[in-house]
Amino acid sequence: MAAANPFQDPLRFERKMPECAVVIFGANGDLTKRKLLPALYRLAYERRLSPGFAVIGISRTAMSHEQFREKMRDSVKQFKENTEFDESVWNSFAESLFYMAGDVADANCYTNLAKCLDEVGEERKTGGNVLFYLSTQPSQYAETAAGLGNAGLAKGKGWRRLVVEKPFGHDLASAKKLSHDLHEHFEEHDVYRIDHYLGKETVQNIMAFRFGNGIFEPLWNRRYINHVQITAAESIGVEGRGAYYQEAGALRDMIQNHLLQVMATVAMEPSASFDADSVRDERSKLLRSIRTMTSEEALKNSVAGQYGPARIGGQDMPGFREEKGVDPQSQTDTYAAVTFFVENWRWAGVPFYVRSGKHLPKRVSEIAIEFNSAPHLLFGAGGDMTGPNLLLLRIQPEEGISLKFLSKRPGAGMTLRPVSMDFNYGSSFGERSPSAYETLLLDAIIGDATLYTRQDMVEASWAAVAPIQEAWGNEKFNFPNYAAGTWGPEASDKMLARRGHIWRKP
Amino acid sequence: VSATSTIDPEKIRKELSDLWVDLAKEKEGDAGVLRACSMTLIAVVDETDDPAQIGETIAMLMREHPSRAIVVRVRDSSEFYLSAQVLAQCWMPFGDRRQICCEQVEITASLASSGDLPAVLLPLMVADLPVVLWARARAGIGVLGGIAGKVIVDSDTASDIAGVVEISKHHRVGDMAWARLTRWRELIAQIFENKCYLAELGGLTRARITYTGGKPKASACYLAAWLDRSETIWEQGEEDAVALESATGEVHTRIRRTGGEGVEVTVHEQVTNAIFPVATDYTLLREELSIAGRDDVFEGILSRAAELAGRFA
Questions:
Q1: What pLDDT does residue B4 have?
Q2: How far is B40 from chain A (nearest CA, A)?
């Protein structure tokens, strides 16, 4: 066994970062420019990277190392968010950036990569550890994994890990096929399926909140919780990504992956320990407990929507079908709402309402847990002012937790009013919250897969939405059915009204 | 709110209570004032210390460690004197929606009245939450240490690690001089996370510590104790620096300040630059307040550091 580093002090230091090379396929793409490189720069700025660190960017465009560095410098400057751009830190960081042109379909690309890895490893002392990050078209994932495997790069003297961006297939069958193809060359425990929602601080805090405190977990069940609403709303439309979005839709793009993972985190059983496998076992178990709907139930418990044109703030907004690259007869859902049920002892009968949409009134992601009302209204019905207790887990934009409860209004008489107890993540700890990509990149380098999605989780979540996909595939929707800037189609409100519930307007 | 020549703790408690009513009245509408408290923080300072600077440090700390802050200003006087006032530290983290406030009590006490302080302070502790004493002035430790779960000192300013050892016999102690080293230590630890470099560590028997000023500060002694090399070479220089070398003087790792917040890190021939944000009372206290339990690494090197510091006394 290798000797331990005697200088570590886990009480005061951030996590240990091993030496490694990060190989980014699709290094000239948007994700690399907007998210990956800025996240890595921020990690460098905060001294979180090992001195034995390197990035090798690969794309088809011919570029020198210097040109790549210049390009990335501009991107980091533009997308560094709330971190200062420091010339000396950048210059040091830039020395760890390398580039090679290559086509993932060409076997030479991998031969050249092997040579490049050897040279960079020698120069930067990366210890043979390599994180391959596939920031390419999803259709190239299997091909790239095969290229790496065939060139002998999937194994080496250090660890080798493969990070894959969503979508992980477009349905259950294609997800299974993708996993099968990746497993030809990489073991499942070396495949890191990234879901940036799980990297968000509040999503991680759900587990701390639930399992670190003794007072909430006893209430966390069908006896006390009336229903759960999970919302991911965007105020913008497809913003030039119409062609891509047309193939995805809100159900596939958001609910199948991000929101079902969030739901699993909210509803899962406590894991035996906080290691990656235990946590993911529980998430997976929860996803497998989601009731598989019949076609009839799928239509009743889901609503598809598509935004139409509207005038917002004096500006004319095009409908989805008027967006560039979108079929004028498109049947793509820009809004999806689903009522899920979890079939286990804890949650039987509790509806989980999940919705996501584009061009809704505001950008907000939150989980609202509504508790049952007091069994007897001792103080009389107070109309709208006396709602049930509500626990709000805010994911964005203001990450935090709020608890709504009733309190007596001061003065004579017994009039109740709701008050809110707020915990705001940013202001409570005063530190910059790391971006989801910073957290997830660090996790992958460290080898902590807790926040990554496993094959069985992906398949279980595809299985949960499969009946809806099928039912919607047989329908011809009368789109558009909601105006941009509103909270979605009327049918969505009716879906909740059937059970006596209403959507929150965050 | 009030200033008197003697202190009635019950009166202070009532004033604290009234403070919240007044704040709520000021803030009309549904968005009330939110009270946050995670500890009682007692700051013992000299009366001559800049009150604006102390106030600013405490105000910044409130956001991450919302506390009932009790600032005790020690007056160097043999006449009995005690006075108190109550105020609130508020901020607005949610735009204009919700104001968060913490309580602050300011007590001025002459040295002659310091024996009365525990009885005044005890009723003001927030129940069920930790009590931390920031002993910026050492005068308070003797009388107030007993009510605090942790005592924070700064031996860089007092140049007295032996004193820290003494305090540690009776209280859990944190030293801002040790916290000042965290960035340096973290960087060194990060370098030796690399297995190639870790394999070379056994041969790096010499530490070279370059200090500024007349003699090494407490931080430098802590660093030498923590590095735990068989030989430490001390040298005076223009910039703080540390190097790990082989017995023959071959430099493996060198970290040196390059002015301002910049540091230059050299491992073998590879040079990188990093930023060490300037450590302030606020950043150092923030770190120490985050550690509620034992600090085994610090406690493990304390005696050795005191021994090294003794050589420069």
A1: 47
A2: 17
Nearest-neighbour CA in chain A from B295: distance (Å): 7
DSSP state of A34: I
pTM comes to 0.80
| Residues of chain A scoring pLDDT < 50 | 383-384, 427-428
In this prediction, residue B95 carries a pLDDT of 46
Mutation site, B60, B175, B272, B295, interface A, largest A CB count within 10 A? B272
Separation of alpha carbons A283 and A461, rounded Å: 10
Residues 6+ apart with CB under 8 A from A42: A80, A81, A83, A434, A435, A438
Taking each helix axis from N to C end, the angle separating B161-168 and B296-311, rounded to the nearest 10 degrees, works out to 140
Position B2 pLDDT exceeds 50? no
- Kindly list the distances between the CA atom of residue B296 and the CA atoms of A100, A235, B191, B305, in Å, as whole numbers in the listed order: 47, 50, 22, 14
Q: For residue range A157-169, list pLDDT tens digits in order.
A: 899 999 998 889 9
Q: Which of residues 366-405 of A touch B (CB under 8 A)?
A: 398
Q: Cα–Cα–Cα angle for A53, A55, A60, nearest 5°?
A: 165
- Taking alpha carbons only, the member of A184, A200, A55, A68 closest to residue A123 is A55
Instruction: Give ∠ CA A340-A346-A348 in degrees, rounded to 5.
Output: 45
Asked if omega into A38 is within 30° of 0 (cis), the reply is no
Q: Which two tokens stand for residue A371?
A: 């508790």
Residue B270: closest C-alpha in chain A: A124
pLDDT for position B1: 37
What's residue A374's pLDDT? 82
